[in-house]
């Protein structure tokens, strides 16, 4: 964990919004981990010694829809360019790509890469997004 830098941050994005994103990202990550924790994804246990790979046989299958990822994607897509750039910069700082002292450079780099247009796809592709955002938010001290 990085220590907060003694500096006033003039954030465009509300820290409470980032906290909401952290909760949703962690929920998405937990759901993925739960689905694959046994290492037998998409297999059916027949008895304690045999397994059968699950194949779709043309019958309609009910799928439980997890709205968390879709909600998070929509929330990120609703951010303006400055907010999206700051969110990406927080993830980068949390991941260790930038030091907190390089905040302005991280935001500028995120903005230059077109943060507003592709932010949700980029961020949701990060496997530890919730953790990295949390670390970045803590580094800022918000």
Give an overview of the whole structure.
There is one protein chain. The protein has 142 residues and is mainly α. The chain has a domain at 24-34 and 64-142. The protein has helices at 15-36, 67-77, 81-95, 103-112, 115-124, 129-140, and strands at residues 43-45, 51-53. The protein has a two-stranded antiparallel sheet. Helix 2 packs antiparallel against helix 5 (115-124), helix 3 crosses helix 4 (103-112) and helix 3 (81-95) crosses helix 6. The longest helix has 22 residues, at 15-36. The radius of gyration is 19 Å and the shape is globular. The chain starts with 14 loop residues before the first helix and ends with a helix.
Brief descriptors of the model:
single chain; two-stranded antiparallel ribbon
What secondary-structure arrangement, pairings included, does this model have?
Blueprint: H1 15-36, E1 43-45, E2 51-53, H2 67-77, H3 81-95, H4 103-112, H5 115-124, H6 129-140
Antiparallel strand pairs: 1-2
Helix pairs in contact: 1-2, 1-6, 2-5, 3-4, 3-5, 3-6
Number of strands: 2
Placed side by side, the strands forming the largest sheet appear as 1-2
Classification by helices and strands: mainly alpha
Instruction: List the helices and strands in order.
Output: HEEHHHHH
Count of helical regions = 6
Helix content: 55-70%
What is the percentage of strand-forming residues?
A: under 5%
Uncertain runs are 34-38, 40-44, 54-65
Net shape: globular
- Integer average pLDDT: 79
- Distance between the amino and carboxyl termini: 14 Å
Question: Over all CA atoms, what is the radius of gyration?
Answer: 19 Å
Largest sheet: 2 strands, antiparallel
The oligomeric state is single chain
């Amino acid at each position: 964990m990085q220590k907060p830098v003694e500096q006033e941050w003039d954030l465009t994005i509300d820290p409470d919004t980032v906290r909401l994103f952290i909760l949703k990202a962690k929920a998405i990550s937990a759901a993925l981990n739960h689905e694959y924790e046994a290492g037998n994804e998409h297999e059916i246990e027949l008895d304690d010694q045999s397994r059968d790979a699950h194949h779709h046989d043309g019958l309609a299958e009910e799928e439980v829809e997890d709205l968390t990822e879709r909600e998070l994607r929509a929330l990120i897509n609703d951010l303006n360019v400055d907010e999206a750039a700051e969110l990406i910069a927080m993830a980068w700082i949390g991941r260790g790509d930038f030091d907190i002292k390089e905040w302005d450079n991280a935001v500028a780099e995120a903005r230059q890469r077109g943060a507003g247009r592709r932010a949700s796809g980029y961020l949701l592709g990060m496997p530890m997004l919730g953790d990295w955002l949390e670390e970045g938010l803590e580094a800022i001290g918000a």
